[in-house]
Amino acid sequence: VQLQASGGGLVQAGGSLRLSCAASGRSFSDYDMGWFRQPPGKEREFVAHITWSGSSTYYADSVKGRFTVSRDNAKNTLYLQMNSLKPEDTAVYYCAADSRGTYSRRYQNYARWGQGTLVTVSS
User: Fold this and answer.
1) pLDDT, position 23
2) What is the CA angle 40-46-51, rounded to 5?
3) Is 109 helix (H, G, I), strand (E, B) or coil?
4) According to the model, what pLDDT value does residue 25 have?
5) What does R_g of the chain's alpha carbons equal in angstroms?
6) Beta-bridge partner residues of 87
7) Could you state, in chain order, the average pLDDT of each consecutive group of 10 residues for the chain (123 residues)?
8) Sign of torsion over alpha carbons 106, 47, 99, 23
9) pLDDT recorded at residue 114
10) Whole-angstrom Cα distance, residue 34 to residue 97?
């Protein structure tokens, strides 16, 4: 599967953005999906995970209650709705795919990656 993330940009603190990740190639519903982010000068970190059917979601503590991951398998698209954004959310955001039933917070466990989209939150 090939992944293409989009939707990043510059937003003020307290604002919202919705990221999208378009999938092509192999069936999107064959994959659990994750969002990760890499702040400037830091390691890539887990943001959210959603199972192949969308029935279960998992979040990093830092984004719980503010971010929502969802997917539309008919449209082969993954989403990340980000509300109440903070300057510390500034990062390049990546979508990633892994096999069904392999929930992990470790980026090394994800087999396929999109190219990343930059989110900048100003104070």
Assistant:
1) 96
2) 145
3) helix
4) 86
5) 13
6) none
7) 96 98 92 97 97 96 98 97 98 95 91 95 96
8) negative
9) 92
10) 6
Strands 117-122 and 9-12, by their bridges, are parallel
Can you tell me which residue has the tokens 């959210």?
48
* CA dihedral for 40, 14, 20, 78, sign (positive or negative): positive
Place of tokens 């293409």: 4
Q: Identify the residue whose tokens are 């903070």.
A: 86
Give, as one character, the DSSP assignment of residue 61. Answer: T
What pLDDT is recorded for position 21?
Answer: 98
The span from the CA of 112 to the CA of 120, in Å, is 24
Residue 87 token pair: 């300057």
CB burial class (10 A; 0-12, 13-18, 19+) of residue 25?
A: exposed
